[in-house]
Structure to design on (621 residues):
């Protein structure tokens, strides 16, 4: 009997112990996701989360209900925002309304982050439970438990649970759809197909990128077991029965999507406009500043490196990708042997993973969070791989396999604990604001950058950190095209400013990689970091992950050819650090950005500044 068969038929006493193990995993997952929910002190540093809260605050269900008003595009229940699906917005609105009945402060936008982030954490823990259920159904309880445990420790999931965007809801809805689709594939029926379709509809109402889930539903219907279906008089009858079942399932999905996102139908022009805009952003068809960071990055390989180094960590990332390869091999073997029913159940999640990877991995925009809908499967398949290695027959191979399994779990747990240090520290933007308010004289001219949060923070209205209005704040439009007018304004900033504040690496990690497009601004960042413009670094704040004195440091200078400012270089030299190279911007700039504050220490003439910027060698329009 196969090893996974032995697990599936474990004694009730053994099964009870394994179920308690799941409870322990869920408790750990919750603890990691709920710790430090107020990491930004409720100031909403994540722009997508901030946008969602503003949209939710505008939602109001007409009461008493007026059907004509509800079905109108002008209804106050219409979010008028379809960059994401409507389900996350409606869910938060309903949850905060219910909580507001108990504590009124939770019903307002200033209290949204508590309920939103707790909801995000709960949805991600839901994914942990669904991985266990899917793993137990396909591979046995041991694999289900290990896969769930690895997902509980996955750093990308821990991080995104601390924001209320749509990512954790999408991953949870995708896993629910896959679990129900596997269940349908193992015993086809219209009822099981309907449940899978409803889950698919909810996934689409969360984000349009869930569309490839239609493929595993098709796999379930065309390859699944129909032993419990109607009598079969021939291949054509079976085909048409399966096709009708798939159409019925997709019809259920359409109904669920219409209920959860009704204004996609009622307000189609706005819906299509937003969806097309998001598609153009993701594909690179639209030139948007915050996606210029991905110009020149390699499809698929960029995501692979981010998964391995940052999102999952090297041990879990390697195990997950090896587990994916194992699933592809085992499923192909079953198909070649015409073991269709066994292959169908495995092919359901595999088809989703591969279809999603092909569709999303090749996009121009490569935000780390884009991989969240498939990382639960990578954790599950890592668990399957490690369980198989644990049970290898050859003694030496089994010893090696068990060492690798233990090492993967331990190192993944250590990485998760190291990441919690981010939420145990004061956020760098808050710390930098405190430095500016305490050290920068009132009336000083401070240059910040567009497309980034200004520092000192504007959200502070009172107290010692509320000094924004006491300073002469200037904004450098670095992403604008390099022209003579831009050069003129930059020279004015450099001659008139007392401080230059960079809130993150958003711009200086993108623009120097595009020297043909930004010859002037690239040279500006080179000269600023090299302290050639009369400004020197006087303050920097960061909040690296770390454990037992060892920090995990991301590079924001070397990979774009910039010098490290002297003060920061001296500080970094004193760290016990593991330097892991560059990280995706979206992985660092929300919860642990690196801030830089430069102070004027010398006044250069216009000619000296022009020479430092190399203006005489540039041909600007």
């Amino acid at each position: 009997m196969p090893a996974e068969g032995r697990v599936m038929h474990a004694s009730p006493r053994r099964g009870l112990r394994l179920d308690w193990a799941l409870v322990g995993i869920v408790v750990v997952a919750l603890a990691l996701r709920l710790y430090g929910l107020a990491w930004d002190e409720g100031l909403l540093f994540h722009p997508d989360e901030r946008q969602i809260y503003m949209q939710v605050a505008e939602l109001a269900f007409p009461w008493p209900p007026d059907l004509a008003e509800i079905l109108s595009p002008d209804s106050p229940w219409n979010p008028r925002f379809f960059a994401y699906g409507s389900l996350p917005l409606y869910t938060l609105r309903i949850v905060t309304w219910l909580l507001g009945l108990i504590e009124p402060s939770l019903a307002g936008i200033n209290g949204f982050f508590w309920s939103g982030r707790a909801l995000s954490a709960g949805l991600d823990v839901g994914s942990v439970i669904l991985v266990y259920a899917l793993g137990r159904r396909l591979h046995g309880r041991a694999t289900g438990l290990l896969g769930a445990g690895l997902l509980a420790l996955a750093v990308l999931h821990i991080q995104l649970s601390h924001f209320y965007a749509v990512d954790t809801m999408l991953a949870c809805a995708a896993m629910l759809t896959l679990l129900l689709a596997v269940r349908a594939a193992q015993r086809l029926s219209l009822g099981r197909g309907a449940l899978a379709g409803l889950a698919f509809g909810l996934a689409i109402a969360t984000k349009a990128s869930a569309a490839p889930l239609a493929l595993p539903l098709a796999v379930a219907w065309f390859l699944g077991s129909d032993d419990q279906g109607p009598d079969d008089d021939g291949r054509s009858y079976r085909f048409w029965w399966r096709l009708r079942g798939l159409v019925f399932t997709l019809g259920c999905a359409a109904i669920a999507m219409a209920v959860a996102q009704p204004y996609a139908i009622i307000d189609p022009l706005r819906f299509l406009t937003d969806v097309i805009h998001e598609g153009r952003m993701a594909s690179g068809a639209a030139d948007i500043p915050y996606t210029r960071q991905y110009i020149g990055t390699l499809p698929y390989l960029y995501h692979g490196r981010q998964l391995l180094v940052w999102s999952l960590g090297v041990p879990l990332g390697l195990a997950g990708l090896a587990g994916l390869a194992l699933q592809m091999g085992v499923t192909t073997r079953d198909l070649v042997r015409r073991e269709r029913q066994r292959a169908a159940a495995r092919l359901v999640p595999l088809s989703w993973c591969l279809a999603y990877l092909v569709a999303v991995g090749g996009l121009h925009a490569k935000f780390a969070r884009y991989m969240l809908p498939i990382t639960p499967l990578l954790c599950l398949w890592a668990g399957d791989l490690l369980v198989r290695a644990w049970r290898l027959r050859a003694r030496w191979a089994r010893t090696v396999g068990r060492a690798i399994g233990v090492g993967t779990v331990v190192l993944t747990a250590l990485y998760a604990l190291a990441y919690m240090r981010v939420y145990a520290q004061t956020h760098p933007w808050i710390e930098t604001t405190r430095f500016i308010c305490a050290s920068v004289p009132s009336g000083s001219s401070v240059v910040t950058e567009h497309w980034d949060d200004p520092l000192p923070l504007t959200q502070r209205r009172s107290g010692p950190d509320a000094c924004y209005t006491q300073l002469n704040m200037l904004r450098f439009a670095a992403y604008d095209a390099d022209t003579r007018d831009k050069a003129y304004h930059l020279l004015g900033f450099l001659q008139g400013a007392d401080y230059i504040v960079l809130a993150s690496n958003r711009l200086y990690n993108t623009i120097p990689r595009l020297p043909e497009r930004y010859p002037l601004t690239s040279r500006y960042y080179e000269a600023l970091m090299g302290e050639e413009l009369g400004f020197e670094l006087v303050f920097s704040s960061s909040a690296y992950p770390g454990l037992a004195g060892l920090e995990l440091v991301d590079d924001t200078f070397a990979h774009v050819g910039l010098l490290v400012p002297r003060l920061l270089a001296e500080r970094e030299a004193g760290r016990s650090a593991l330097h892991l190279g560059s990280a995706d911007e979206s992985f660092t700039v929300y919860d642990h950005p690196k801030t830089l504050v430069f102070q004027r220490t010398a006044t250069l003439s216009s000619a000296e500044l022009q020479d430092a910027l190399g203006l005489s060698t540039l041909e600007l329009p």
